[in-house]
Amino acid sequence: GLGNEESITVEIRNGGSRSLSIDDIGIDGGAGSEHFRIDSETVPAAVASGETGTFDVVFEPQAAGDHQAALSIESNDQATPTATMPVSGPAVGAEISIDRRTLDFGAVDADETVYMNVTIRNKQNSPADLRINTTDIVGGDEDAFFVNRGGAPIVLAPGEAHDIEVGFEPHDRGNKNSQLQILSDAGNRPIINVWLSNTRAHI
Questions:
Q1: pLDDT score of 51
Q2: For strand 102-104 and strand 130-138, is the pairing parallel, antiparallel, or unpaired?
């Protein structure tokens, strides 16, 4: 799951008559490479003739999905100076739920402040911790709304719930609309928009 890491051990066998110098080991493959790293402390400088060396590849998924990259090993092997092999790993994200998608603050006088809560939850059967990265007011009349308490960053264990308190303080009359945008590493809904208004009108 996200937030966890797993490692596998890779073997380098030297079947030649000379010592095999390991010049560089890296992870390539575009965006997929960010989910993998080499444990540099385990990389051998050389592998003697007839011996086997090992090192660890660590899988640290930053997003849900099936991730793929390529492992490359550069050495003084004249036949294969750069050896490559695919690496892959699946990552399952947390499952987020929210108790409401609209906050209607009703009729509020100018410069009066009213607060309402929205509750987010990492579902009980979620396979990983839930990380809420941002809780921002975006779009429309964003100056009239604000996150008062419980904003990001937030980490919720499976089954844990958390309240975000949103304030509404209009400075003039009229209909006000905006959104509370919640960005997380959830596998089911990484972006959630909660509609904010004082009229039940949606943006």
A1: 97
A2: unpaired
